[in-house]
Write a structure and sequence with these properties.
It is built from six helices and ten strands, in the order E-H-E-E-H-E-H-E-H-E-E-E-H-H-E-E. It folds into two domains: about 1-140 and about 185-190, 3-Layer(aba) Sandwich (Aminopeptidase), CATH 3.40.630.30; about 145-180, no CATH class. Helices cover about 25% and strands about 25% of the residues. The strands form two sheets. A seven-stranded mixed β-sheet has the order 1-2-3-4-5-10-6. Helix 3 (about 95-105) links the parallel strand 4 and strand 5 (about 110-115).
Amino acid sequence: MEIERIGHKEAKMFIERWHYSKKCPTGKNIFFAWYSNGGLFDRGVYAIADYGIGVNPYQAQSLSKLSGFKVEKDTLLELKRLCRIEPKNPELNLTQFLSGCHKILRTEGFRFIVSFSDPTFNHNGGIYKAANFTHLGKTNAETHCIDQDGTVRHRRYYFRYARRKAISVAEARRELGLRLVKTLPKDRWFLPLNNKKYNKPFQGVQKDAPLN
């Protein structure tokens, strides 16, 4: 197995096929691919991990308070996507893949990883437990808009529409056929890359816990 950095185009094809969100993050991201011999998709790629900058500009400050570490935004990355092909290969543990990614990121000056598991998609955070992340509580519930087809729409969608039409955001939602829904809080997972004492293994979790 080999771990390599790959570009957005290659990662996007894989993530849109295999990740439950079916969406690949835009902006500045670091993509890693885990290659296997004789793989089933995309030149032997078995799994992909995507690390990037979180949308919350105060995330580093919040993590510092929650963890007791001095977390700075320049040394923090968010694990945004982690997915693999189906069927699962029982001999390939995603924790091994994450460990390899984190070794590379550590050499590039990154010191902390944060990620989130979303119960809306039955994601229980098992893979993060198995990879020695520490659970740091839950996020606040968020409000999103859903269109008539059930597709989640970001608030930018109706904000921009309201601005173009010079109407209120409430009117924009009505005209676009959107309804507001409140999501479940997400679980927050935190990993310092240089502190073995802090990264105490969780007990009773299988080494390659399910992604959902």
